[in-house]
Amino acid sequence: MVKLVRGRLIEQNSDSRLNPNLLKSCRLDIPKFCNKIQAGEGRIVACLKKHFVNSKSQLSMSCKEHIGGIIEDAAKTDIRLDTTLFAACRQDIDHSCKSSSDNEGDGGSVEECLKGLFQRGELKSVICKTEVAQLIQSTLVDIHVDPLLNRACAIDLMKICDGIPPGEGRLIACLLNELDEEKNGRIPKLSPKCKSLLSKREEMFHLAGSALKLESIQDLYSHVNESPHRNYFLIVAMTLVGVIFIFGLFCGRATKRKAASKNK
To answer: Among 20, 103, 196, 246, which lies 20 to 30 A Cα-Cα from 44?
Structure first.
């Protein structure tokens, strides 16, 4: 029965047309952010996941909760529930992170394995690196999508971050702020288990942020290269380079004249 339900969820996450809860929760967001994305092969969920991680994107609260739930369920039980992550990382999973039981799910072990490979720079697939970087960054939006960290820091959240409402990255920001304070000499409040895992995650956050910035630059290049107005963009870019070059040339000459006059 559990296997049947999980199979149905995997199917729904692969094709938004089969997922009435997703369509209801993200009814405003899909046409707004993913209107050019064709349904099927997890593409709609992948699109919404990108906007979930992007702090500048304004997903509706209902859609955020639904997408966060998909990420959390995949991390808790079975990576196959996150269909795009599983497809992108299949090679690395088969090579280094194979689950012990496909029938019962992996209990989050495969995602943790992928995060470890990412941190050590051992992921083979470029697409997988991007997906894992996005997965890591999603914790900065909502700590609940990282069940291992959430469990390790459950008591710390109650003691240190009591009264702080969940969502918008507030809880993880509270913990990271406490970690920074302790590095600067404050009396430790974080439990050893939470502090250890949080420190590892903090390093991952920096690595993932750098990876996603590089991807954004590559995406910009791809969009410009594929644009019908590509020649216009190239002319503008070359014009700017030319102006900077000429400006630098005149500045250089002016500096030389001043130096020559001083020598006289």
So the answer is: 103
